[in-house]
Amino acid sequence: MDIRKWFMKQHDKGNGTASKPVKPEPSPKKPSAGILEPRKPVGQESAGRRKTSKYFDKDLKSVKEAEEVSAKRKAQKGDEDFPYDAKSPPAKKVHKIDDYDDGDDDFVASSSKKKLVDATSSKKLKSGSGRGVPQKTKDIDESDQEKDDDKDTEPPPKSGGRGRGGKSGSMAAAGGRGRGGGGRGGFLNFERKDPPHKGEKEVPEGAPDCLAGLTFVISGTLDSLEREEAEDLIKRHGGRVTGSVSKKTDYLLCDEDIEGRKSARAKELGTPFLTEDGLFDKIRASNISRTTPKKPSDKVPTAVPKKGPQKVETKRNLVLPEDQSGNSSAKSVPSKAVTSGVSTAVQRGQTTEHVSLTWTEKYRPKVPNDIIGNQSIIKQLHDWLSHWDNQFLLNKGKGKKQNDSGVKKAVLLSGTPGIGKTTSAKLVSQMLGYQTIEVNASDNRGKADTKIVNGIGGRTTNSVKELVSNESLSVGDRSKQHKTLLIMDEVDGMSAGDRGGVADLIASIKISKIPIICICNDRYSQKLKSLVNHCLLLNFRKPTKQQMAKRLLQVANAEGLQVNEIALEELAERSNGDMRMALNQLQYMSLSMTVIKYDDIRKRLLSSAKDEDISPFTAVDKLFGVNGGKLRMDERIDLSMSDPDLVPLLIQENYVNYIPSSVGKDDSGIERMNLIARAAESIADGDIINVQIRRFRQWQLSQSGSVSSCIIPAALLHGRREALEQGERNYNRFGGWLGKNSARGKNLRLLEDLHVHVLASLEFSLGRETLRLDYLSILLKQLTEPLRIFSKDEAVKKVVEFMDVYSINQEDFDTIVDLSKFKGRSNPLDGIQPAVKAALTKAYKDGSSSRIIRTADLIPLPGMRKAPKKRIAAILEPTSNELAEEAGDVESEGGEEDPSETEDLEDTVDSAKKIQRDLVSNHARGVQVQVELKGSGNSGGRKTPAGRRKGGSEAAKMAKTGQGSGTAAKRKR
Amino acid sequence: MLWVDKYRPKTLDKALVHEDVAQNLKKLVTEQDCPHLLFYGPPGSGKKTLIMALLRQIFGPAADKVKVENKAWKIDAGTRTIDVELTTLSSTHHVELNPSDAGFQDRYVVQEIIKEMARNRPIDMKGRKGFKVLVLNEVDKLSKEAQHSLRRTMEKYSASCRLILCSNSSSKVTDAVRSRCLNVRINAPTEEQIAKVLEFIAKKEGLQVPPGFYDRVAAKSNRSLRRAILLFETCRVQQYPFTNNQVIPPMDWEEYISEIASDIMSEQSPKRLFQVRGKLYELLSNCIPPEIVLKRLLSDLLRKLDAELKHEVCHWAAYYEHRMVLGQKAIFHLEAFVAKFMSIYKAFLLATFG
């Protein structure tokens, strides 16, 4: 019953979109001339053939079954428990529903198609012949009639892919594993010399596919073309460019033998060298014999549908009726429809009918194997899911400990958008016979109405949950075959509206009786931090562009687009691994053209490529590049604005490295020096403007800011880069300012600590700057010189005494040493024996027991998120007091101040003290140290450790100190 | 304890230099009400010593009961709240703080914190002056906005509060603030005065000092008494008994800047500029204030420079120092100065020697 509901829902969706196209027959729009001819007959033929095909289906069926079983076995290896037949009942149901939905017999046939059948059929095709592509084209007629289910129209991608591969050998071979486009510079692009005759030669136009099947590797500087131009040229003519030389490489394109790795390898492999002129000749040659080479290239798409399809088509059709009969032993996947999946736009008009379905829906993979890339992840997911029941339901008797043993109850799929996370989750669960319940960001997932979650827990309140809870109850009952699975899509999107969502999800994972698959884009999102611990993490990677191109090619063929693989690879690369985006782009382009060439894709995506993030390094490279002077102003502003904070820093860091190309002969370097001076001033201007922008919020100045901090320096100095230091790589360095500034900040903080300590000694009342400029040298001398001169004990004694006078502690000692270190000069601690240093540390530590108050540094205060930046210290005063006190001090030294301990101290400290100090910790506000010279002998020096763990005890403490002395009440809030 | 602290005069009467100023100050606070005061003078001339002595003169030993405090202030500035952390030194009668520590938010410190401190009258009035004192250090580093906010505070709460401002240069204090204060210029002590103080210390310490040694230390001290005493003591730590030709060690950072200066003079090239940048960074990250670096660098350069160029170089130094104050990333301006200098000097060398 519930399943029925579930499916109805799905079909509603399908119908909603698909119903429209069903009625109007193929739109009267005239198909474009080139494609029309070959197609029409095919369509007709197939219609006839379909009938005939039915006769054959029995024979095929047996074969199929055998195959499918074996295939399945393989796939499910290690999962014996999994009953095959279990899948059939749902299948039956599905049929029913389908019937109910739609009386069309054809539809039933298609929708009842099992996934397994699908898989095998595709396999069949593979083995049978390499004609998957055309076969798809054929089936369009069927799909036209069966369009009710959106998924029906999808082709079995695998078959297509393989088929194609078999057909056009060279392409497939090239499309194999090779890593193309490695030449693309990217982040650390080092400067390649300009082509010596840049732009002087006329670039030939050749026949579009004259280089088809050839693989090139470009090495060194070419004569007239920039590297990228050459790459373009080759790709435009159907060639392939890869990054490194391999056996498959046909030519190494280079004009000079630069003795690099590529040329060495090419020689080793015997790859022929080709000069740029040679390449041009090749292309021109194709032009002369234009008529001849053109034919084959045209033929490829057209001829294929003509030839191959018949057989395939028949086979395919054979399958159908058999499924219709509903006795298939394989499990059924309702939405699967292999046959119709092979939809092809035989006629242009027919394609338009499909437009209402986006291609991304239409060509959604139907079996896990269809998913591009990430097969191992899918396997893992499959394994996890197939073991789930055993792990969490069957073993119940053994006790719950099982759950802790590393096996997670839920899984978290992560990866960039458009690479098939949701799809694989659905497919895998379908394959294993789970019913999926998908909850995504469009559903309210807040804690307030965590219906799903409650449902899992077994409570009932609403319809979705009712469904779930029913299912979840039935899960326990092993006799029932429906198993449910919850897909929580877009879990990282749980936000304001979904309060407590993640926490609740975790709770539900803990109690869940059904598997839960969570899907997110960014696994490292803060929101998911807690969730991650409860899930098996599976990270989807981007498919390679070859993988994507293959699949895109199937789609293109199915839709009757003429695209070559190179172009699709480009598309794949530009869309950055996002299959969905690539498909959308392709669909969009298909609206206006039927033949898509490399250039079209390039043109189209160049504009969108602009949106992609440009790294500050690339921006700086471009600005300072030899061609930097040719950029338009708006381009320069765009570049410098790509990161308005970082680009100026990079510019500032690197501008001295450039040899300005605007200066001609400059032996003395004076011209360059002048330009550098101007650039430096301009950069400084930029800094001043930046202050105006940030401090006074004059954001309208931001363009002037980037002009003076980036564009002017770049305009003055753009040119070749030289390395200034030996061994330095000739790449732009990262801006040093950030690091140096934070080092400075840290040192300032340390200096401030030292300053406060010294101030607290009351011997010193000057500013921090004075301390640094005037005092530091002598402090260092006083602290280190004795260690060199005197004998160990004496030296240590002297130094510790000195430290005590100025209440310098050991960190301060380090600070003083650090601040006196200058690069290229000797370390102030040189010449001091390690033994002496150790002795000093020990002596100081020993001595610390006799100091009343120790520093309160670095002890986090309650109520403050981080330790206060500036911390206050305390004062040291050697005392000759009781042991009890010393014990207390040692205690506090350890960092774990014990309030009771210190309170005791208050009583024990005797009253004869001349100086009373209060070190009061002030909750939430920081720490304050109070020092008083007590004229009138008050009772008791008292100490209270400043660092407090607990706010509560702190308040108590404050009360204590308050009552102890009147002056302590001077504490400020 | 360092001599410089040990022999710091505690009262106005004991002042070793600026005795006249000390006497005047004493009269000022004993005979009549004390106005706002602005002490200015080069570092090491004794401003702070005088201020501390003055406070003791006004408040007696209570001024010594000081507590050091580091507090985070939350200031409500219209739409947002600003967190400022300040270290203050305070007794019952005075508060000392360094508002420029708050960086560009110093305005809020002046507007809120100082105003609040100034507004509160001391409770205990008997036998005491009816005011409290706020000592503000480094007033010259306050931004213009902060100084403007200061002047109203000075007038409005003058009944209960006196400000003692302390700065190195009066030119960076706005006229408005200056005219509200009694300006006290503290000159840098002459070398003879310094030598006298050193002699005094040596006598107290019982040291044998060769003749002329005081003068050498004083000459090295740049007329900063503090520097002189510290140098003197450094020498003492390094080598005692003193010898006549004993090297007086320069400050570490000064030595480093001199090194940079000779780097610049010896070669003017992008490469050298790059190296100099590294060294400047080193200085800055060791907390040497950029103005000091620039100033010191200029004086080192001038020492070796042809007279013809001195004027121009000084001009540019001033130009870039000004811009450094306007800007935020000091290194940019320092580097711009070095680049400018290199370009000028290189042109000069080429013109002179071909």
TrEMBL record, chain A:
Region (Disordered): 1-207, 285-349, 876-973
Gene Ontology MF terms: ATP binding; ATP hydrolysis activity; DNA binding; DNA clamp loader activity
Compositionally biased region (Basic and acidic residues): 1-14, 54-80, 190-204
InterPro entries noted in UniProt: AAA+_ATPase, ATPase_AAA_core, BRCT_dom, BRCT_dom_sf, DNA_pol3_clamp-load_cplx_C, DNA_replication_fac_RFC1_C, P-loop_NTPase, RFC1
Compartment(s) of residence: Nucleus
UniProt keyword Methyltransferase, yes or no: no
Ranges annotated as biased composition (Acidic residues): 883-909
Stored Gene3D superfamilies: 1.10.8.60, 1.20.272.10, BRCT domain, P-loop containing nucleotide triphosphate hydrolases
Subunit annotation: Heterotetramer of subunits RFC2, RFC3, RFC4 and RFC5 that can form a complex with RFC1.
Protein name: Replication factor C subunit 1
Species per Swiss-Prot/TrEMBL record: Nepenthes gracilis (Slender pitcher plant)
Lineage: Eukaryota, Viridiplantae, Streptophyta, Embryophyta, Tracheophyta
UniProtKB/TrEMBL annotation, chain B:
Native organism taxonomy: Eukaryota, Viridiplantae, Streptophyta, Embryophyta, Tracheophyta
Coiled coil feature spans: none
Protein name: AAA+ ATPase domain-containing protein
Any one of the GO BP annotations: DNA strand elongation involved in DNA replication
Protein's cellular compartments: Nucleus
Source species, domain of life: Eukaryota
Record-linked PANTHER family: REPLICATION FACTOR C / DNA POLYMERASE III GAMMA-TAU SUBUNIT, REPLICATION FACTOR C SUBUNIT 3
The UniProt record lists the keyword Chloroplast: no
Known function: May be involved in DNA replication and thus regulate cell proliferation.
A single GO molecular function term of this UniProt record: DNA clamp loader activity
GO CC terms in record: DNA replication factor C complex; nucleus
Record key words, sorted: ATP-binding, DNA replication, Nucleotide-binding, Nucleus
CDD domains per the UniProt record, alphabetical: AAA (cd00009), HLD_clamp_RFC (cd18140)
Family label: Belongs to the activator 1 small subunits family.
Domain AAA+ ATPase, residue spans: 33-192
Oligomeric form and interacting partners: Heterotetramer of subunits RFC2, RFC3, RFC4 and RFC5 that can form a complex with RFC1.
The keyword Nucleus appears for this protein: yes
SMART domains per record: AAA
